[in-house]
Structures are given as C-alpha cells and as structure tokens.
C-alpha cells in the first residue's frame, strides 16, 4: 500500500515538472503560492519526516522545494531543513510568503488526501526514477542515484540494515525463509546432477537490520559486522556470505557440503547406531560437527 508521501510522489510525477513544491507542516499558517507551485501540507511536522523526502520530491521532477514550517519544534525543524538543503544545495530553500496579491494561485494538496492522477485514472503508466510503492529507505536510495548526490553518508542519517558475516554455515536455508525482506538467497551453480556450488548471498539494499536471520540460524553462523551505509547500498552486487561445494547424500538425498563423502552425517550416524532414535538437538550437533 502507498504511504502518504508515496501518494504525493505519484501525483507529482504525473504533473509536468512543477516549478516549485512547498512542503508545509500540518500546523503551519495558510499561504498563497504562485500559479505553477504546489503546496503540499504534511500530516504532521516537517521535523518528523525522513531525511530523504525533499530529495524524493526533486527526483520525481520538481525543480525547487521550499520549506514552510510551523515553528512548534523549531530546533528539530531547522535540523531537518539543513539536512534537506545540504543534500541538494541550491534546490531546497526556506519559504518566504509573497506580499503581492495573487489573482491566480497554485494548487494545495493536504496529505494523505492526494487525488489519483488523471493519467492513472485513464490507465496510462506514470514513469519515474522513484518506485512509489517502495519504502522510504528504498525511495531515498533511488533519489540519491537519480540526483547523483555525491556523499549521501555525510548528509543523511544511516540507513537501516546490517552487513553480515557467516561462519560455519550449513546452507540449511532457515535464514532465507526468516528474512521478510527477501534480502538473503541461496544461489546454486550446478556442475552436473549431483555436485554443485551453493552460495548464501545478501542483497544489502533489501536488508533492514531486523536480526531475524541471526536469531534463527540453528548453528549460530551469522553475525552482524557493521551497520549499512548509503554508499554500500549503491553496490548492485549481492554480497557473498558463504559458499560450499555440495552433493546429494546417496541414501536420503540431503545436501552434503563435503563432496568427498557419499552419505550425510545423519545417515552415517544411523548406519553406525542402527537402533538409536536421534533427538532433534543431537541432529543439529551432528550436522554441525560433521559437515
Ligand atoms: S547462515 Fe545459518 S540459517 Fe542461514 S543457511 Fe547458513 S546455517 Fe542456515
Ligand atoms: S537482518 Fe533482517 S532484513 Fe537483514 S538479512 Fe537478516 S532477516 Fe533480512
Ligand atoms: Zn513543524
Ligand atoms: Zn543422508
């Protein structure tokens, strides 16, 4: 579902590059804007908006952004305004009301009540470098790329996400299923039917640092090394965390990491102890110790 900024971005992208978008706090005094300008009234205060909102609005085609604050959270508003201004120098300014009487005025949009763009109603595609359905972090990453912001780590606060290390991974795939953001994958290069190379890879751009993968790994193989940065998010390559050659167990078909053995650790144990039932914890220990 689109959030209210996503709705605004979709609407803006459907217009012909608005000359000026004024971003107003919900409680900022009413203003008049010149024709061609759009006054977007937020649901709250600018201070609560993300670091990337102004960049996202510029990336969908606005030529200039102006900030119209309520003044209730003055320090936090000034801080947010300086982040927006530093990220895109010269393109974000403070709003100064005009003294001239305006016979024609720009449009006002109060979030979250953003009209559906006519183009969308008519079924035409709205093209934009920003995916309106993506979350704020991904939209900000896309805006950084679209606007070629040179040093995003210096202006925006750190993105959510972790860089991961894997040691002693058994390529069981639990972390892949645990990740709600599809950031982890097991990729396979097959040589022939039985032998192949399996890789656990992380798409850093999709990780939001929830730690579910770390908490649920049955052998404690994963560790968060350092927080993500905007710079690392720009790397299109998935990060290789672990790789191993594997083959199918001759007996049960389970994957074995070592290719110089025919049977998986569990089948070896069953062969050696034919009358013993194996509890789950021991299975985990066995798999870890022997593969
Ligand atoms: S990191 Fe842990 S959960 Fe993920 S595949 Fe490796 S062993 Fe399984
Ligand atoms: S920390 Fe969370 S979002 Fe990141 S890879 Fe692990 S499960 Fe996925
Ligand atoms: Zn405010
Ligand atoms: Zn087996």
From TrEMBL:
Residues 160-189, 198-227 form the 4Fe-4S ferredoxin-type domain. It comes from the Bacteria. Coiled coil: none annotated. Pfam families: Fer4_7. PROSITE patterns: 4FE4S_FER_1 (PS00198), 4FE4S_FER_2 (PS51379). The keyword DNA-binding does not apply. Keywords: 4Fe-4S, Iron, Iron-sulfur, Metal-binding. SUPFAM superfamilies: 4Fe-4S ferredoxins (SSF54862). PANTHER family: ADENYLYLSULFATE REDUCTASE, BETA SUBUNIT, FERREDOXIN III. This is 4Fe-4S dicluster domain-containing protein. It comes from Arcanobacterium phocisimile.
């Amino acid at each position: 579902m689109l959030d209210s900024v996503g709705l605004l971005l979709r609407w803006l992208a459907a217009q012909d590059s608005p000359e000026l978008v004024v971003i107003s706090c919900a409680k900022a005094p009413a203003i008049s804007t010149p024709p061609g300008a759009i006054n977007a009234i937020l649901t709250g205060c600018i201070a609560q908006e993300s670091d990337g909102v102004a960049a996202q609005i510029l990336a969908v085609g606005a030529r200039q952004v102006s900030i119209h604050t309520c003044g209730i959270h003055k320090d936090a508003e000034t801080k947010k305004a300086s982040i927006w201004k530093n990220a895109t120098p010269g393109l974000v300014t403070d709003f100064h009301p005009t003294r001239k009487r305006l016979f024609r005025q720009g449009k006002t949009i109060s979030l979250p009540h953003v009209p559906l763009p006519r183009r969308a109603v008519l079924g035409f595609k709205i093209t934009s470098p920003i995916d309106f359905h993506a979350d704020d972090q991904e939209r900000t990453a896309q805006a950084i790329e679209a606007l070629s912001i040179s040093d995003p780590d210096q202006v925006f606060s750190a993105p959510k996400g972790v860089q991961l290390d894997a040691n002693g991974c058994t390529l069981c795939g639990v972390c892949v299923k645990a990740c709600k953001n599809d950031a982890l994958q097991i990729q396979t290069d097959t040589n022939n039917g039985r032998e192949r190379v399996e890789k656990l890879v992380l798409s850093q751009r999709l990780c939001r640092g929830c730690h579910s993968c770390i908490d649920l790994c049955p052998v404690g193989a994963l560790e968060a090394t350092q927080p993500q940065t905007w710079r690392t998010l720009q790397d299109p390559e998935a990060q290789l965390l672990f790789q191993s050659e594997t083959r199918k167990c001759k007996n049960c078909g389970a994957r074995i990491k070592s290719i110089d053995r025919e049977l998986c650790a569990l089948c070896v144990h069953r062969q050696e102890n034919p009358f013993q039932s194996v509890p789950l914890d021991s299975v985990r220990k066995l798999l870890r110790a022997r593969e």
